[in-house]
């Protein structure tokens, strides 16, 4: 009897040990699968971030990002992200008629080029109007800016004008598609005869937060709109901008700077003249066949 009891206990211990080993194996398998799922999800998120960064009006992978599937984007590098914010110069508290802006210093990364012009003032006016004028080889193109809606972007353009930032730069990309007709400019390094792969990768030594985003979902960027390109990431607006020759449907992620009041016919003629399809099939469009050179920009 004693031997039988001992045998039963041995079998019970063996069975318990087997159950424990099975449970531990199942837990290990579950943990491994969980890690695999997390790795897959992490990779997918990384792809989404990279795709998003390459999405709007400059170039994507050595080309700019502009179409409803690839709208105006301000960075050729698909991995480009806004630089980490650095301490801002001290500024007085924003009072009546002024607002404080956040300027994030930029660095040359991933093939992007930066023209060092310092940072604009932190405290800027948020009342009144401003006129942005581009003296081009084809004539004057000007826009009216409402500083109550886009005070920081308006201040940025005033700062860049004072630094001769756009001088002799050319509009490096245009798109002429149904519902998406734009001319893109604003890279200070897009200069000289002809076009280069690097055109569309340049900007100033800072980025800013988007403002005055469209609220009209049916007509977010009407004909004559001048709006700011970005990488698709929040706070990545720089110097590149696009002018809509006709009503253009894009996600409302791009700062509306103002409305063209002179020279829209110039833009329309350039868009109608076509492009070299350098950015087809993705992100679309190409270099304008009719070159547009910004000889000087002024803000008054």
Tell me the Rg in angstroms.
27 Å
Give the total of beta strands.
Answer: 15
Described by the principal axes of the CA atoms, the overall outline is: elongated
Helix amount: 10-25%
What is the overall pLDDT average? 81
Beta-strand fraction estimate: 15-25%
Major sheet characteristics: 9 strands, antiparallel
Distance between the termini: 107 Å
Low-confidence stretches: 33-69, 75-87
Describe what this molecule looks like in 3D.
With 300 residues, the protein is of the alpha+beta class. The protein is elongated, with a radius of gyration of 27 Å. β8 (173-177) and β9 (180-185) form a beta hairpin. The strands form four sheets. A nine-stranded antiparallel beta sheet has the order 7-15-5-6-14-12-13-9-8. Strands 1-4 form a two-stranded antiparallel sheet. Residues 33-69 and 75-87 have low confidence and may be disordered. The N and C termini lie far apart (107 Å). It has helices spanning 2-53, 151-162, 264-273, and strands at 98-100, 103-105, 113-115, 123-125, 129-136, 139-146, 169-170, 173-177, 180-185, 202-204, 206-208, 225-228, 241-244, 256-262, 293-299.
List keywords for this structure.
alpha+beta; two-stranded antiparallel sheet; 3 helices; 300 residues
């Amino acid at each position: 009897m004693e031997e039988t009891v001992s045998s039963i206990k041995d079998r019970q211990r063996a069975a318990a040990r087997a159950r424990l080993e099975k449970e531990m194996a199942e837990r290990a398998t579950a943990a491994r699968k969980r890690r695999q799922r997390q790795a897959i999800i992490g990779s997918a998120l990384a792809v989404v971030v990279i795709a998003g960064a390459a999405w709007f009006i400059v170039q994507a992978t050595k080309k700019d990002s502009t179409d409803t599937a690839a709208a105006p984007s301000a960075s050729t590098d698909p991995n480009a992200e806004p630089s980490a914010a650095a301490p801002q110069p001290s500024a007085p508290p924003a009072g009546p008629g002024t607002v404080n802006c956040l300027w994030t210093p930029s660095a040359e990364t991933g093939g992007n080029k930066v023209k060092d012009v310092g940072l604009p003032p932190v405290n800027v006016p948020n009342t009144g109007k401003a006129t942005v004028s581009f003296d081009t080889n084809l004539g004057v193109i000007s826009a009216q800016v409402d500083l109550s809606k886009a005070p920081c972007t308006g201040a940025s353009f005033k700062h860049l004008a004072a630094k001769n930032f756009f001088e002799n730069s050319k509009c490096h990309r245009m798109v002429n598609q149904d519902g998406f007709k734009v001319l893109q400019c604003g890279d200070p390094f897009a200069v000289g005869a002809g076009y280069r792969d690097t055109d569309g990768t340049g900007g100033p030594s800072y980025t800013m937060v988007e403002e005055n985003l469209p609220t009209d979902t049916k007509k977010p960027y009407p004909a004559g709109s001048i709006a700011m390109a970005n990488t698709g990431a929040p706070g990545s607006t720089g110097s590149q901008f696009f002018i809509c020759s006709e009503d253009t449907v894009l996600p409302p992620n791009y700062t509306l700077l103002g409305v063209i009041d002179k020279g829209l016919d110039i833009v329309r003629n350039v868009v109608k003249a076509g492009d070299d399809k350098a950015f087809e099939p993705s992100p679309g469009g190409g270099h304008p066949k009719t070159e547009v050179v910004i000889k000087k920009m002024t803000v008054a």
